Amino acid sequence: MELVYLHTFREVARYGSFTRAAEELGYAQPTVTAQMQKLEQSYGAPLFERYGRKLRLTQAGEALLPYARELIRLYGESKEVIKQQTTGPIAIGTIDTLAAFFLPPYLQAFCQQYPQVDLVLRTAGEAEIVQQIRDGYLDFGIIFDRPCTDPELITHVIREEELVIVMPPAHRFTTATALTVHDLEGEPLVLTEEGCTYRGMLLEAFGEAGMTQRSACQFSNPEAIKQCVRCGLGVALLPHMAVKRELAEGVLTAIPFQSDKPPFSIQLVYHKKKWLSPSMVTLVDTITRSQREES
């Protein structure tokens, strides 16, 4: 038995008419009739009897009405409790780079406001994150990609982030103002892992130019990539935020990477059918508002 049947029952009892109840509820009159028949079948007793044009409750209907009212009230009360939910886990999927160089200050600010909420951070590639959001395993994704156009997802673009070619300070590229894929022909590359969106963009650019990349090694961890670059194993394509500290210390140099591809952005995504608790709304606002204020 569905709660909606009890709600319909209450309205029929209130108006003494299937037709009037249907008008108030926005149903077709046969829908109301069918619901009341199912309710009567569930209880094994008639709930209404007709006197002329007027419906009246039977003895069974009179007995059921206060329970229906109370169940509807309790349902409304439970909704209010859920609306003010401030505990429980929130599962966030992101990539290693954003987990290390973007999210920490915003997660800290959120945890100070909601100390009883458990933030569960899972790292994966963007495609896997999006699929896990579709499947309901993740509440949110923080991704770094070209604009997300998935019709099942709501997307908040937080900011564009420049991609740079990272190299040791003595590298021959350091005098350049920008680099293209043609400049990288024959250059050993320290690549990110397969599935990384900006690695995919770089290899796509090599393919479109009819060139073959020279891969020195590949890692999923941006810190390992930077250490290999410092040791002279090759150059790497990374988001600018991942090398801010090294640039300030002078141990690495970064030159903007230019291509005809759409720019990459940090984006917060979640399923369009996802119900957001107050704490989830705060998390979204904390991340998106902070970045708007910075920009």
TrEMBL record:
GO terms for molecular function: DNA-binding transcription factor activity; transcription cis-regulatory region binding. Residues 1-58 form the HTH lysR-type domain. Keywords: DNA-binding, Transcription, Transcription regulation. InterPro entries: LysR_HTH_N, LysR_subst-bd, WH-like_DNA-bd_sf, WH_DNA-bd_sf. CDD domains: PBP2_LTTR_substrate (cd05466). Belongs to the LysR transcriptional regulatory family. PANTHER family: HTH-TYPE TRANSCRIPTIONAL REGULATOR (PTHR30126), LYSR-FAMILY TRANSCRIPTIONAL REGULATOR (PTHR30126:SF100). This is LysR family transcriptional regulator. It comes from Brevibacillus antibioticus.
